[in-house]
Design a protein that fits this description.
The protein has a domain at about 30-50 and about 95-195. Strands 1, 2, 3, 4, 5, 6, 7, 8, 9, 10 and 11 form an 11-stranded antiparallel β-sheet that branches. The protein has 2 helices and 11 strands; from the N terminus they run ααβββββββββββ. By secondary structure, the protein is mainly beta. About 5% of the residues lie in helices and about 50% in strands. A hairpin with an 8-residue loop joins strand 7 (about 115-125) and strand 8 (about 135-150). The longest helix has 8 residues, at about 10-15.
């Protein structure tokens, strides 16, 4: 998965406040951090994208607002009826959107209970405040190590829906035959926060 294009501000803003958008892609800062224990299968990756923009125009009749980033790129967003605090938005307000995705992969230990499923939370700003949103969800699935290719350093995972996925194995991980048939936990947590600060 590639967070860079999936969570640009234009997408984060439009997803988080339920808007449709037009015009330029807004500039954002992207960061990726990976962590793993040498020799141990699995690891964690955290990707974060932050967008800062200023409200440069508002059309109350059409329920649209335009964001401009520090590079001059502009994007017009159409606010849906669910954006209750649209009337609190003012030209000059600063909008900050942060999107993050954490992916954790590890071999399940024998006897460890599966926790497959999904959970999420959505919170919006109180009536009368500046528009804002916090959304987060976590999905966890269990796959099965179906096969390994030590020459190509790949493992074939059998996913719960019956499909297979071939993944690369890090060079520091010993591809032990005892891993065949073991369960692999894949947990993805995605969060987006949008806040508006007055001018």
């Amino acid at each position: 998965m590639n967070l860079t294009r999936a969570f640009t501000l234009s997408l984060a803003a439009s997803l988080l406040v339920g808007c449709q958008s037009h015009d330029d892609e807004l500039a954002s800062d992207y960061d990726r951090t990976a962590a793993y224990v040498e020799g141990v299968p699995g690891g964690a990756v955290l990707e974060t994208e932050t967008l800062l923009a200023t409200v440069s125009a508002i059309d109350s009749a059409k329920r649209t607002f335009t964001l401009r980033d520090d590079l001059g790129n502009q994007r017009t967003l159409v606010a849906p009826a669910q954006m209750h605090n649209f009337d609190q938005l003012k030209v000059g307000d600063r909008v900050k959107a942060v999107a993050s995705q954490e992916r954790i992969v590890y071999l399940r230990q024998p006897g460890e209970v599966a926790n497959d499923g999904a959970a999420g939370v959505l919170a919006t700003a109180p009536q009368g405040d500046k528009p804002g949103l916090l959304a987060a969800d976590t999905v966890e699935i269990t796959a099965l190590v179906k096969g390994m290719d030590t020459t190509l350093r790949t493992a074939t995972l059998l996913l719960p829906n019956g499909s297979e996925r071939v993944i690369k194995v890090r060079p520091d991980v010993d591809m032990k035959t005892e891993y065949l048939g073991r369960q692999v936990v894949l947990r993805v947590t995605t969060a987006v926060a949008v806040s508006v600060q007055p001018q």
